[in-house]
Design goal:
Layout (H helix, E strand, L loop, with lengths): L3 H5 L3 E4 L7 E4 L7 H19 L4 E5 L2 H13 L2 E5 L17
Parallel strand pairs: 3-4
Antiparallel strand pairs: 1-2
Helix pairs in contact: 2-3
Length: 100
């Protein structure tokens, strides 16, 4: 298993993308290495168990949340709930509003 530092080393950084002052962190190199993905999921599951204890479900927010959320949910033995903007998921959906 890779250490957290080894997984972090795979993340590429692009300063000033998509605009000046923003540091874009590209996690996709992690997905080119199956052991890195397994290690990342294991480390995240370890943190979730340590901080949250029992988990009822894993919620994944668009894009990156859809990549890791189902794997984390599977490792925890719970369901996965995708969250998207209104109109982006087919079928019956649950809607909630919130304020930042």
């Amino acid at each position: 298993m890779y250490s957290v530092e080894q997984v972090k080393a795979l993340v590429r950084e692009y300063p000033d993308f998509p605009s000046e002052g923003v540091l874009f962190r590209d996690i996709f190199p992690i997905f080119q290495d199956p052991e890195a993905v397994r290690s990342l999921v294991a480390h995240l599951v370890e943190q979730i168990r340590a901080q949250a204890g029992t988990v009822d479900a894993v919620v994944g927010l668009d894009a990156r949340g859809f990549l890791l959320g189902p794997q984390i949910a599977g490792a925890l033995g719970v369901g996965f709930a995708p969250v998207r903007k209104r109109g982006k998921l087919p079928g019956r959906v649950v809607q909630a509003t919130y304020a930042k």
